[in-house]
UniProtKB/TrEMBL annotation:
SMART domains: CheW (SM00260). This is Chemotaxis protein CheW. InterPro entries: CheW, CheW-like_dom_sf, CheW-lke_dom. GO terms for cellular component: cytosol. Residues 6-151 form the CheW-like domain. It holds the Pfam family CheW. GO terms for biological process: chemotaxis; signal transduction.
Length: 162
């Protein structure tokens, strides 16, 4: 990934893995809440929840990334994220994560292009890899994450795509 500017992200955990989303895409961080189930929805789609008077689709990010689902805990959070939708109109999605770790700024030199990982994480879901101490944080792109594998079509079928 090229560019000379620092990147500010919300870092969160799923299991033992650390992921991040650009802070510019995260509207707010909420405590976990139950969703109203929608029949015939994909397994990663939890249903709808009310966020300040708006119906917001909630997704299980663990399941969307191919991880097993887990029951919510006291640290489970919902990241309300703007995802680029059709006609330039953003779609608000509630992404359920195990825990939010922090909001961090990564210097440009710690940002690397996402390698073709070939395994659990598909490179099209990962925008970049961020170096954090001796470890790594996978920077996700919500548009890629929910535009791949028919996720956008599934949301459209449920009447929720922008």
């Amino acid at each position: 990934m090229s560019g000379a500017s620092d990147i500010q992200v919300v870092v969160f955990g799923l299991g033992d893995e650390e992921f991040a989303l650009p802070v510019t895409t995260v509207r707010e961080i909420l405590d976990h809440r139950n969703a109203y189930r929608v029949p015939h929805a994909p397994d990663w789609f939890l249903g709808l929840t009310d966020v300040r008077g708006d119906s917001v689709p909630m997704v299980d990010l663990r399941v969307r990334l191919g991880m097993p689902p887990v029951d919510p805990t006291l640290t489970t959070r919902v990241l309300v994220v703007d995802v680029a939708g059709g006609e330039g109109k953003p779609l608000a999605l509630g992404m359920v994560v195990d825990r939010v770790l922090d909001v961090a700024t990564f210097p440009a030199e710690s940002v690397e292009s996402a390698p073709d990982l070939g395994g659990r994480w598909r490179s099209e879901q990962i925008e970049a890899i961020l170096r954090r101490g001796a470890g790594f944080v996978a920077l996700l792109d919500p548009a890629r994450l929910f535009g791949a594998d028919g996720a956008e079509a599934a949301l459209a079928d449920l009447g929720m795509a922008a």
